[in-house]
Amino acid sequence: MNLLWLQSGGCGGCSMSLLSHPASDLFALLQGAGIEVAWHPSLSEQSADEVLALLAAFEREDIALDLLCVEGSLLRGPEGSGGFHRMAGSGRPMVEVVAALAARALHVLAIGTCAAYGGITSAGNNPADACGLQYDGDVRGGVLGAGFRARGGLPVINVAGCPTHPGWIVETLLALGLGDLREQDLDALGRPRFYAERLVHHGCPRNEFYEFKASAEKPSDQGCLMEHMGCKGTQAHADCNTRPWNGEGSCLRGGYPCIACTEPGFEEPGHPFFQTPKIAGIPIGLPSDMPKAWFVALGALSKSATPRRVRENAVSFRASVPPAIRKTGLK
Fold first, then answer.
1. Which of 38, 176, 198, 211 has the fewest C-beta atoms lying within 10 Å of its C-beta?
2. Chain centroid to CA 287: how far?
3. Terminal-residue alpha carbon distance, the chain
4. How far is it, in rounded angstroms, from Cα 109 to Cα 172?
5. What pLDDT was estimated at residue 331?
6. What's domain 199-331's superfamily in CATH?
7. Of 138, 95, 97, 145, which is closest to residue 118 (Cα–Cα)?
8. Which of 69, 16, 13, 7 is CA-nearest to residue 41?
């Protein structure tokens, strides 16, 4: 299977993330599933006329295009012309190039939240009219249209994340290479379910503080970041804390709240990222699947039972109170 990777309106962070995959030989791993990287703008030797000739061959269908990966949002401005971003050396708007190639691809993948939903590049008043391949925010449409299907029968596969996780990219590609990704394996927003049906909250290193509603009050505190610091880990769909970057890192492990970067519209939360909006002292963004009354009751009960160790460590930059040493009574 031939893989073509294009970069549009983005920062290149998803390609940088891909390079952090733990495989000692990423290309050999892909080749094991029958995938050959025909071209990647940062990893391939071809440039200039060689690339334009390759793209033309794909467009004429002289070479089969099996996997089209697009990184970065599509810039439709000004006034729908796509003139803000043209393919270097060709003069053609990138939206035109992508649409032509997508029509010939067996599978189309949006790599990262920008390509999936618009992401950071669509924030603010969006002067470039940036959007995703098949979504504009959480509304189906985008450049390819709501009803688009690749030759293989699937809609755009949204490997969302900002940046997306290298494991999510590679496992999605391997599944496609092995013929093991079907439409039922995608969630309601087109994301692969193997990572999107988990929550960032799962495996969070601050879960004990969350259970007792022992909250951090400033960035250096160890406590739960949901109540005051804007964390959306209980609502964000991703397995970041059970599948850390490089086997070790995640936003929460680094002391930062989850900003739900796999979700449409994360770039415009309507409040500072490090602030939790509340009504009558209750966070607006409650954990997924939890009614407000349950959360209020659970929060009150949990806080009343918070051990001194958890309460004091929550507002400290390090564990100042160690766990008590007690006999368990078990034999």
1. 211
2. 19
3. 58
4. 9
5. 64
6. Cytochrome-c3 hydrogenase, C-terminal domain (4.10.480.10)
7. 138
8. 7
- Beta strands 130-131 and 74-75 are antiparallel
Amino acid found at 63: I
Q: How many CA atoms lie within 13 A of 289 on its CB side?
A: 5
Extents of the domains making up the chain: 2-196, 199-331
Distance CA(149)–CA(151), nearest Å, equals 7
Q: Which architecture does CATH list for 2-196?
A: 3-Layer(aba) Sandwich (3.40)
Q: Where are the beta strands (DSSP E) in the chain?
A: 2-7, 36-39, 67-71, 74-75, 107-111, 130-131, 135-136, 139-140, 157-159, 278-279, 282-283
- Residue 82: CB atoms within 10 Å: 23
- Closest C-alpha to 254, from 266, 264, 241: 241
**Residue 218 token pair:** 């400033």
Per the document, the length of the chain is 331
CA distance linking residue 8 with residue 78, whole number of Å: 16
Which run of H or E residues covers position 249?
A: none
pLDDT in tens, 287-302: 888 888 878 888 888 8
Q: Residue 330 is encoded by which pair of tokens?
A: 């078990």
Q: Which of 308, 313, 304 is nearest to 324 (CA)?
A: 308
Backbone angles phi, psi at 308, to 5 degrees: -55, -40
Backbone phi, then psi, for 73, in 5-degree steps? Answer: -75, 165
Closest C-alpha to 194, from 135, 253, 238, 138: 238
What pLDDT does 12 receive? 95
Q: Enumerate residue ranges in the chain where pLDDT < 70.
A: 331
Distance CA 138, CA 274 (A): 23
Residue 197's contacts (CB-CB under 8 Å, 6 or more residues apart) are 187, 237
Residue type (1 letter), 172 = T
In angstroms, rounded to a whole number, what is the distance separating the alpha carbons of residues 67 and 90? 22
